[in-house]
Write a structure and sequence with these properties.
Elements (H helix, E strand, L loop, with lengths): L1 E3 L31 H8 L3 E5 L2 E5 L10 H16 L1 H8 L3 H13 L9 H14 L17 H9 L14 H13 L31 H9 L16 E6 L2 E6 L7 H16 L4 H16 L2 H13 L5 E9 L10 E9 L1 H11 L2 H6 L16 E12 L6 E6 L3 H7 L2 E5 H11 L4 H5 L3 H26 L12 H4 L4 H17 L3 H4 L7 H15 L15 H16 L6 E6 L2 E6 L2 H21 L2 H13 L3 H12 L6 E5 L2 E7 L2 E8 L4 H12 L7
Parallel strand pairs: 3-13, 8-10
Antiparallel strand pairs: 1-9, 2-3, 4-5, 6-7, 7-8, 9-10, 11-12, 14-15
Helix pairs in contact: 2-9, 4-5, 6-7, 9-10, 10-11, 17-19, 17-21, 19-22, 19-23, 21-22, 22-23, 22-24
Bound molecules: zinc ion.
């Protein structure tokens, strides 16, 4: 599970990240940088450009240069394994993505096209496609709308050497253009990557390539119904690493493995993972890497669980990696994993804070408002750390999560625990860029609220992510005999799971326990977290929706669901007051303790829904509070937000690792920080295009 970055809305997290305007704001207390790191951060250009609705940032990797050679080698091999899988996510997202991307890249590389009519619009569209790993918006899932004509694109494509175009056998440029015409220009064709509208067939109305043509939702549900024995206490993650297709009227899984689907990319990933294994830091890490290789070689999901267990057990290593088919948000039915990789080194200092929370996991579980039967009697193996990201690829780049909690298999989590990480340098880079956003000033109800956010929001934000990941997702248990949440709660499962993790964090945000264990100095930080959650859940996040749209994305649904529910249930006690002033709406928290109690009540209910697999109640909760938008408030929020002139999404340019060779041996690895997004995308196209255009 991930906590996504929702940066420019001031929602740093899958949680209520506050928007803050800290030290650079005119009315904040100026704080001079006191150490070399801070000074270096000041001269490092964080933001490089803005296009469409996104901003491109860079991040640094403090600590990399100081790693011993063996760890640098390890990081380098994992970095190569990460980049090797990049094409996979493109094909997973949509079957025509690689064809579109390679066409656009051919056009980009031909300088003659840059002077042709429509070039600026083509360039902007190309960057948006690169950013989204395909032609659908990375967040809203809607097809990106080109602002150039088919004729303009056709002229550019025809100006290219045919050898540079992704032509099928016997295809010419005209045939390619004919094939691309509806894909790029017809807004009704494959309009959404992931459709979650329960009134429609979720599979046939989603453009995702996880299912073959002609496969229907009923087919999928029937196919997997008998696959899992109810009595199996260690169920595999069925469907996680395959595409489900119809062949001669029969449903067949095309497994992603060496010798299977995506073979050329997976083979390359395996090559680098094997080299990494040879320089592993210790036996536990080596075991995990070897299991991962075995899983890629066999496609066996039991081996994947063995790998996950070995990976969770590897807590002492400095270097870590996520590499595989992991998150299932891209599948409307939540079976199939998007390929991603995150290579990181541990931030030793910052990890102490998160470890302090993890160490108290049992206390938090015991004192939670859950029904006793839904509490875990023993919370095992929660490991938490802050990591410094070295490279991200696949589903986690350029748009990145800021918190990760894995593995996803519930039984592995229950028996072996999970690893929870906060992507420290990514968050820091985002904070740096956020300082001047102005969102806080535009939406906070009072100078007190602004002052509280400025003073405490950094801490509140960090703690919320930590608790969301470390104790939130880790908490609670299913009642005996109840199926996995993606079976029982279907398309509402993700929203309810994120709500659960957020509610655990919110409930404890105002608990003196946090002061006692030394991670918080003042409960004002908790109040700042509550202000932010309400402000964002009821208003700010609406800025990213187009007029008339419902909320679709799981984290956004969860946030509004929680905020709208506590607003309604607290009405009698005036817990949250809606204030109208000068034509602007504000939501003011009037009673923090009562708000905390309401978060607790909702937490118990959401956990009950998960523990009992109560689909009906889960659906009612999400549909009633999390989906619909008040059009008048929405329009007002958009206006206030647009006045700030900031793009709501951010993504990152990745660092580049360069090995220093002496003969065959790597004697050092240096790190570079490229600053041109398009150049990096073209570089990746040159070096990591491993899959055929059609898979
Ligand atoms: Zn989460």
């Amino acid at each position: 599970m991930i906590a996504p970055m929702l940066a420019w809305l001031g929602l740093g997290l899958g949680c209520p990240a506050p928007d803050r305007t800290t030290t650079t704001a005119p009315d904040a207390t100026p704080t001079a940088p006191t150490d070399a790191d801070a000074k270096a951060a000041d001269t490092f250009k964080v933001q490089t450009e803005q296009f469409g609705d996104v901003r491109i940032l860079r991040y640094r990797v403090p600590g990399f240069e100081e790693l011993p050679l063996q760890q640098k080698q390890l990081v380098y091999y994992l970095y190569r394994a990460a980049l090797a899988g990049r094409d996979i996510i493109w094909d997973q997202n949509y079957r025509n993505n690689l064809r579109v991307r390679r066409t656009l890249e051919a056009v980009w590389r031909n300088p003659a096209t840059h002077a042709m009519p429509g070039w600026d619009a083509v360039a902007s569209y190309t960057k948006r496609v690169w950013f989204s790993n395909g032609i659908h918006h990375h967040y809203s899932m809607k097809k990106l709308a080109p602002e150039f004509t088919a004729e303009q694109l056709a002229a550019m494509v025809k100006a290219c050497d045919p050898k540079t175009l992704p032509l099928d056998a016997g295809q010419d440029a005209d045939a390619l253009l004919a094939a691309l015409q509806p894909v790029i220009f017809d807004p009704t064709v494959d309009a959404k990557r992931v459709n979650l509208d329960p009134k429609a067939d979720l599979i046939t109305t989603s453009a995702t390539n996880y299912y073959g043509q002609g496969v229907k939702q009923k087919d999928v549900e029937r196919f997997y119904k008998g696959k899992l024995e109810k009595s199996d206490k260690q169920p595999i993650s069925v469907g996680l690493n395959s595409k489900l297709v119809k062949e001669k009227g029969k449903l067949v899984e095309k497994v992603w493995k060496v010798g299977g689907m995506y073979d050329p990319a997976i083979r390359e990933i395996v090559k680098w993972l094997k080299l990494a294994s040879e320089v592993a830091e210790n036996d536990k890490q080596k075991l995990a890497l070897d299991k991962l290789v075995a899983y890629y070689e066999t496609g066996d999901l039991r081996t994947f669980d063995e790998y996950s267990i070995a990976w969770v057990a590897d807590t002492d290593s400095r270097v870590d990696v996520v590499n595989g088919f992991i998150e299932v948000y891209g599948d409307p039915l939540g079976y199939r994993g998007a390929w991603e990789s995150v290579v990181s080194i541990k931030d030793l200092e910052a990890s102490k804070r998160i470890a302090a929370i993890g160490a108290q996991a049992q206390w938090f579980e015991d004192h939670s408002p859950l029904l006793p039967a839904h509490r875990k009697p023993s919370v095992t193996g929660i490991s938490a750390k802050v990591i410094t990201v070295v490279v991200e690829a696949g589903d986690s780049a350029p748009s990145t999560p800021i918190g990760i909690n894995l593995p996803n298999a519930n039984w592995v989590r229950a028996e072996h625990g999970s690893k929870s990480v906060n992507l420290g340098n990514i968050v820091a880079s985002n904070e740096q860029a956020k300082k001047v956003s102005g969102v806080l000033e535009a939406f906070a109800a009072s100078p007190e609220e602004i002052a509280r956010a400025k003073k405490w929001a950094d801490l509140a934000d960090t703690l919320h992510t930590d608790m969301h990941e470390v104790i939130g997702h880790a908490s609670g248990q299913l009642e005996p005999g109840v199926g996995q949440p993606n079976e029982t709660l279907k398309n509402y499962g993700n929203t309810l799971e994120e709500a659960r993790a957020d509610l655990v964090a919110l409930y404890y945000m105002l608990d003196p326990k946090l002061i006692e264990i030394g991670v918080m100095t003042d409960l004002e930080a908790g109040k700042a977290a509550y202000d932010n959650y309400i402000r964002n859940g009821l208003m700010v996040q609406l800025a990213r929706l187009e007029p008339g749209e419902d909320i679709e994305e799981a984290h956004m649904r969860n946030r509004q669901m929680i905020a709208a529910w506590v607003l309604e249930k607290g009405k009698g006690d005036n817990v949250i007051e809606r204030v109208e002033r000068d034509g602007n709406t504000y939501f003011v928290v009037r009673d923090y303790e009562k708000l905390r109690a309401l978060f607790g009540t909702l937490l118990a209910e959401v956990q009950r829904i998960k523990s009992q697999g109560d689909f009906k109640a889960g659906k009612a909760l999400v549909e009633t509070y999390g989906v619909k938008v008040d059009p008048a408030l929405h329009a007002q929020v958009r206006k206030r937000y647009q006045a700030l002139g900031i793009a709501p999404y951010v993504g990152f340019i990745q660092p580049r690792l360069v090995p220093v060779m002496k003969g065959e041996a790597i004697v050092d690895v240096t790190i570079e920080y490229p600053d041109d997004f398009a150049a990096q995308m073209l570089e990746y196209a040159e070096t990591t295009s491993l899959l055929p255009t059609v898979n």
